[in-house]
């Protein structure tokens, strides 16, 4: 629960698999890949927004409303990408949908600074010189980079798709603002909440294999290590399955996953009391097909709800905050700041509650897993026994 806000989504969730497959690449001319592969958006946004290439910089584009002309009253927002990511594309699509319903005259400038100091500093200077009103940072890497270099700056900042700022040392606590120009939202669910679901799913859990990219520091610190500590304190055997080289994740997982299954069988011969815990490490979760190849009948549970998708290449269950839900909240924070209702430094850490639950009954049947009925009752995303999407939940949130 966000203090003062009960977040129930008002904008229908895009079917994530459809967003990733069907979203056209941005094009000023209607072509398919004028920016290479670094930016995509939900195709239904074309009715409300113009996507305009920067002829001098292939890593920059503008997004302008079709319904309002640029003027002195236009609010300017910078969106910083640290690298290409489908997660960030889902997030920017949701942010644009939220701002379709707001009264701002607004223009977004999206820059992929490739997590390099030179382009990043140029982006900040560009925003300050042109008197931008707000900055969105996409992902934990961009947020950490900007926090180290721009804390106390003139332009307010809202984090999107970023992991827990308290665990990462960017905030002292959850019940007060940053007292700087930063407003944080969090992709994380408290570990006690996640493990309550796990306990209901597997009351006698013996083994928990944690799949994580060791170079993804935010995933290690806020998702892998807390769940490891929590599980060990309760007598659950933790198997740490760490990818060392994200560029070689597939080959490493082909060894790590079967090794974990062999260890599980020592105390759980029929694998009925074991789980794989899939963290929000892109290099790992994009290899869900590879993981499923070797996971036997062990359920793969993801902290990223979007990894539960149509078809067989899916986790069986997701317990976390979707990129879309987080972006929806970040857009609400930005709207408050732009309207002068709140200052960035006054806003508490934005945490969506309850978490998003996603279920694949196709995968559950394939591995013989029973899904508790109350999971189904509260699930945000449900895929049926044929792997088809049958539920997408609508959010509701106040405009103020």
> Order of strands side by side in the largest beta sheet?
10-9-11-12-13-15-16-17
Domains (count): 2
Beta-strand content bin: 15-25%
Distance N to C terminus: 16 Å
CATH architecture type of the largest domain: 3-Layer(aba) Sandwich
Q: Which fold name is given in CATH as the topology of the largest domain?
A: Rossmann fold
> Helix/strand-derived class?
alpha/beta
Low-confidence stretches: 1-34, 395-400
The percent of residues in helical segments reads 25-40%
Largest sheet: 8 strands, mixed
Mean pLDDT, all residues: 88
DSSP E strands, number: 17
The succession of helices and strands, N to C, reads HEEEHEHEHEEEHEHEHEHHEEHEEHHEE
Describe this structure in words.
The protein is α/β, with parallel strands linked by helices. It has two domains: 16-187 and 323-351, Rossmann fold; 191-321 and 355-392, Response regulator (Rossmann fold, 3-Layer(aba) Sandwich), CATH 3.40.50. Helix content is 34%, strand content 20%. It has twelve helices and 17 strands. The strands form three sheets. The protein has an eight-stranded mixed β-sheet, sandwiched between helices. α2 (86-100) links the parallel β3 and β4 (106-112). α2 crosses α10 and α7 (249-267) packs parallel to α9. It starts with 15 loop residues before the first helix and ends in an 8-residue tail after the last strand. The relative contact order is 0.14.
